[in-house]
Each structure stands twice: as C-alpha cells, then as structure tokens.
Specification:
The chain is of the alpha/beta class. It contains 29 helices and ten strands. The strands form two sheets. The chain has an eight-stranded mixed β-sheet, sandwiched between helices. The protein has a two-stranded antiparallel ribbon with strand order 8-10. Helix 3 links the parallel strand 6 and strand 7. Among the domains are: about 170 residues, Rossmann fold (3-Layer(aba) Sandwich), CATH 3.40.50; about 90 residues, Helix Hairpins; about 190 residues, no CATH class. The longest helix has about 50 residues. Helix 19 runs antiparallel to helix 28, helix 19 crosses helix 29 and helix 26 runs antiparallel to helix 27.
Length: about 650
C-alpha cells in the first residue's frame, strides 16, 4: 500500500520471521531495531488490519520480518488475532520470535506453549527487564531456557539491550529442528488428538498436532482451512462429540492446562525481591480502577488530552503552521512562482487557486491536520506506554455498551475531537464489523473535529451559556440515540470486552518518540494523498459550476425547513471541504448580524451533524467500502436536517430565549 522509507532493493528474502506477542510488549520497538526505517505497512489481504514488514540481514542471509498484530492466543477472538494466526498458517514463517513483557510473564507464557505446538522454531524474547526489576521481579532466564528447551533472550528494547544477542540467536537457530512438544494434555485430550490427527491433511510448515488442537477446540475457521468439504463435516462432528463429555468447553480446558504448565515452569524462574516495588505507581494504578476515583482521573486525562491536542496542537501549532508558515511565507512564495513561471491560468488555479492542490490540499493536510495528529500520537503514545489506556477503556466500557460498542471505542472518539479522518482509520482496533460501522457512523455524525469545535466554542462563548447547553446537549444526545438504534438495526454481535491490565509505569520517552515517528510516517503516506484527491474533486466541481448548482438546489431546504437565511447554504457546502470552514461561515454570518440566537443554535447543530468532510468521506470508503460509506452519508444528511428542523420548530413554538 505504502512504504515507510525505502524498500530493500536486494534479493528476495531467504527466510521469514514472525514477531508475535500480546499488545504493549514492545514488538514494534524490536521490529524497528531489527529493520531500521526500511519497512512497509499494508492491510492484510481481506481485512482492515495493518501488518508491518521489513528486511534485515543476519550472517549473510536476507530475512523478511513481519510485525504481527497483538494477540493473546492462537484461538482467536478479535480480527487482530485471526490475522496473526493466518500469517502463521498461510505464510509459514521460518522463525517465530515470541516477545513477552517480563513484568507479566505469567500471563504471556501460555502463548509460548501454543506457539511451540505449531512445530515452527521459536525464540523467546523477555522484554522490559528494567521495569520488572523496578517492580521487584527477578527472572532466572537460563532456567527458563532449560525448562522450555528454546532460545531465550533478555532485552530492554528501548535501550537496544539484548538486540545483538537476538540477532545471534536468529543466525544460529536450526530451522529444520522442531521445538519440544511443550504440553502433554490429559489422557482423554491426547486420545482425541491422536484420533483427529489422521483426519487432517499434511501441510508444509505447521504441525498436524497444532491443527488438531485447534480443530478439537471447535474453531470453524481452522476446520475449513485444513479440510475439504467431507473432512470438514467429519472434523466438526468429531469436535462436537468430544465436547459432549466435558462440563467446560475444550477451549477452556486447553487454556487451563497451559496456564498450569506455565505456573509450574515459572515457579523455578521468577523470584520476588523485597522492597523494590514502586508503591507510587501501584497506588495510582489502583485509583484508576475504582469508580469513585477512576472517573475523576478519566475526566482529568480527557481534559489534559484536549488541552494538549485541541488547544496546543489544533490551536497554537495550527495557527503557526497555517497563518505564519503557510500564510505568510510558503503560500505567497509558491503563488508568486506560479504566477511568474506558469503561463496557463488553469494550471495556476489548479495549484494555487481557491481550491488549489497547494493552497488548500497541502495546506489542509500539513498545516491543519499534521500538527493535530502529531500531538495526538505523542499523547496517545504516553497513555499507551504508561499502561493507562486499558484502564481508560474499562471506565468507558459501561456507557459504550449501551450503544453497541465496547470500551475500546473510547480511542476513536477521543481522536475524533482532534480529527475525524484519523479517528475513522483507528476504528480498525475494534473487534467486530458491527462495532466498526457504529463507531464510523457516530464519528461522521456527532463528533466535531478540534478545528470545528474551536470555532463553535468561540461562537457560543460570545452569546450565552444557554446556547452552549442547547447546541452540545442536542448533539450529544444524538450519539446515544443513533448509537442505540444502530446497535439494534446493524446485524452482528458485539464483541466480548477482554483486555489485559498492565501495571502503571513511567513512559519511556524514546519509546514514545519512536512510535510517534512511525505513526507519522504512516499518516503522511496514507492520509495526505486523500486530502489531495478530495481537493482535486472540489476543484473540478467548482470549474464545472456544480458547486453553484448545489447551492441553488439546497436553498429551499435551508430556508424553509431550517428557517435560516439563504447565505447559510454556502457554509454547509464549504463544510464538506473542511468542517471548520462551514463553522467559520456561520461565525461570519453571526458577526454580521444575519442570524438571531435560534437560527444560530439550529445552524450550529446542523453543521456539527452534517456530512463529514471530504477527506473523512474518502477514508470511510477505504475502511468500510463504497456501499457502506454512501449509506452512512445518505443517512446523515437527512437526519441532520431533520434534527435541525425539529429543533427550529421546538424553539420557535416554545419561544425559547437564548
């Protein structure tokens, strides 16, 4: 799809490495250490899950390193976990590197045993040893290596410690050697596996035992993957028959067996040292989980995020980039160059005109959005690295559940207050298609981006508190009304909310900077072209006078239904280019005395609920597909008008004074 840095021009990879581990264990940092900047990021085929790939050279061999999505088990619950397992099944990596968080090794070692069952060579990297030490945890890694029968590397990836040892282990590993069996299950499970294995066709790379275990657990995807129609039916029937003899699901029994084996292994590996625990961070972690203190802390985090992203990023930085850097220097310079050296008025207009690729497309994406997403990515990196993000999603889960979403949806909603375009891209983290569609609808409908929010707050602050309550009360209500209705109408199940709670820790600045840098590269390659394409389309519509036609066509709706002056039409059309353009148009009309308080309330509600900006629309098409994106827009447009018309009628009928 796009590249970060340059792609390797060398020969095709001799071997393939899959980096596997739970979220927030430092996989992306290790990936960066192995591959440098020479990486590519693309959606895994048939999914919206992104997978990073990059080359590295070790002992004269070329390797392709794949940074897989975070996973807790080879029996997947989320789309991320499905993709990780598909990478193992479809791409048959020569080496698996399992990255564990040293602080939470007891939670993560069961996955090591699952990966051993694949029959593929496994290297274990125990990362974040410094943080484990701070918490009074000491690990006997040689003993862990002896117990597992696998290479084990201790690491502090953010400080490059252990990276040379990891390269040595990769170079020395015998890829023809199958790892130890890992776990011997109960006699009944082993008997069932011995009956299932002959029913499974032999496949290169992945062990039949691994496939038999997955089939025994009743995983329908794995059964259809490994078998023809007749075998699929036999395997499914066999799995159901084996399940009848157990009170708990076989999946649960397998999980408990791995956990028990992990505890036994770690009893000789983990030693607790007295007095080294960080009591301050532990206490903070406890407070963030209690409703009485957790919600005030959550509000404080939201406020600090808003101040840093919404005020500093979308205010201070955007003002500097847009008004000074682009407004006073870059754009005037480029306009002068175009007028002096480009004879064609059409080309001049295309580049630096009212809808120019430079004056609008480049200015919007770099001067407006880039400062916002940079500050957001940095703030998000701090939350992610501190271990607070899982707690944030837990605090939000109860409210979001009522509208068909899980606590994970808190991230896109927060990001939406910075930029709805970027927020729509981050709906990929949600586990089900239903949740991703609901979140996309709510972002497009009722979450104002920070640029638009800043203009609207500027307007209402100059009028009255009543106006503020009416505007944001009506818009906020739509999140719950539309979210609730969408959860009933859109087919599919909501996902179970399962998330690991890591300890609170002091973020590593280098880790946060690396992640911010990598995400910014992704933004520049992924989102900026969409802004340019949207600007080109608007330029074309303007030249064909279709924009003027749209203004004339929509006047009856604006004037008759909403009770607004016809001049408001242009503001709504411009809002499709940029949401804050539309709000700025309303602001200008208000300053000129063209809107009474009720008209101001109606126009602000409609402009906030109106169709998303064109860049967000293109991202919706990319993420949800053309059909779904068009359906969302077709719903939002009349719905926004309907809410505005009802509000106008109610305020006029009740003669409300704002």
């Amino acid at each position: 799809m796009h590249s970060h840095g340059k792609k390797s021009e060398g020969p095709a990879a001799d071997r393939k490495i899959a980096l596997i581990g739970s979220p927030n264990v430092g996989k992306s940092v290790i990936f960066h250490r192995l591959t440098g900047r020479y990486a590519t990021v693309s959606n895994y085929p048939g999914t919206t899950v992104e997978v990073s790939r990059g080359p590295t050279k070790i002992q004269n061999l070329e390797y392709e390193v794949i940074d897989t999505p975070g996973t807790y088990s080879m029996l997947p619950l989320s789309e991320d976990e499905h993709v990780t397992r598909r990478i193992i099944l479809n791409e048959k990596p020569d080496i698996i590197i399992h990255v564990l968080d040293a602080k939470n090794i007891a939670l993560m070692l069961p996955l090591t045993y699952e990966l051993m069952e694949t029959g593929l060579p496994v290297i274990v990297v125990v990362n974040m040893l410094d943080e484990a030490g701070e918490r009074g945890i000491e690990l006997d890694l040689p003993e862990l290596q002896r117990s597992l029968g696998l290479p084990v590397v201790g690491a502090i990836a953010t400080e490059r410690k252990g990276m040379d040892e990891l390269r040595t282990e990769i170079g020395n590993i015998d890829i023809s050697k199958t790892p130890p069996p890992g776990i011997v299950y109960s006699s009944r499970i082993e008997s069932a596996l011995s009956e299932l294995e002959p029913m499974i066709p032999s496949r290169r790379g992945v062990a039949q035992r691994f496939l038999a275990i997955q089939a025994l657990a009743g995983d329908s995807e794995i059964i259809s993957f490994i078998a023809d129609k007749q075998s699929e039916s036999n395997l499914s029937e066999a799995s159901e028959n084996y399940q009848k003899g157990y009170r708990h699901s076989i999946k649960y029994i397998l999980k408990m067996a791995r956990r028990k084996k992990s505890q036994l292994t770690l009893s000789n590996v983990v030693r607790k040292k007295g007095g080294a625990k960080n009591k301050v961070t532990d206490r903070i972690g406890e407070l963030t989980m209690r409703p009485l203190t957790g919600f005030p802390i959550l509000l404080l985090v939201f406020y600090l995020m808003y101040k840093f992203v919404g005020v500093f990023g979308a205010g201070t930085l955007v003002d500097f980039f847009e008004s000074v850097l682009f407004g006073e220097y870059l754009n005037p310079f480029l306009i002068g160059i175009a007028e002096k050296y480009i004879p064609s008025a059409f080309i001049q207009d295309l580049l630096v005109g009212e809808f120019g690729l430079i004056t609008v497309g480049l200015t919007y994406s770099i001067a407006i959005v880039l400062p916002i997403v940079t500050t957001f990515f940095f703030a998000f990196g701090i939350l992610e690295d501190s271990g607070y993000f899982p707690r944030l999603t837990i605090m939000a889960n109860r409210s979001f559940k009522k509208i068909g979403l899980s606590g994970k949806s808190a991230l896109p909603m927060i990001l939406g207050l910075g930029c709805d375009t970027m927020a729509t891209l981050t709906t990929r983290i949600l586990d089900t298609k239903k949740e991703r569609i609901i979140a996309t609808i709510l972002l497009a409908l009722a979450i104002p981006c920070s640029a638009q929010l800043g203009v609207i707050l500027g307007i209402v602050a100059g009028v009255s508190t009543k106006l503020l309550v009416v505007v944001f009360g009506v818009v906020g209500a739509q999140i719950f009304i539309v979210g609730y209705l969408a959860s009933k109408v859109i087919p599919g199940e909501a996902s179970d909310f399962i998330i690991e709670i890591p300890p609170i820790r002091v973020p590593h600045l280098s880790n946060v900077v690396i992640k911010t840098y990598m995400r910014l590269e992704w933004f520049l390659f992924e989102a900026v072209p969409l802004f340019m394409l949207g600007t080109l389309i608007l330029f074309t519509l303007d030249k064909l006078q279709i924009l003027l036609f749209l203004e004339d066509t929509t006047k009856p709706v604006i004037v008759t239904m909403l009770g607004l002056p016809k001049e408001a039409t242009a503001a709504f059309i411009m809002g499709f280019l940029r949401r804050d353009y539309g709000a700025a148009g309303i602001f200008d009309m208000s300053r000129r005395g063209l809107l009474d308080p009720i008209q101001l309330a109606v126009s602000l509600v409609v402009i906030m609920l109106f169709v998303p900006c064109i860049a967000n629309f293109f991202v919706m098409i990319k993420e949800r597909g053309t059909k779904t994106a068009l359906a969302i827009v077709v719903f939002i447009f009349p719905y926004a008008i309907l809410v505005g018309a009802v509000l106008n009628y109610v305020l006029r009928t009740l003669d409300v004074s704002l």
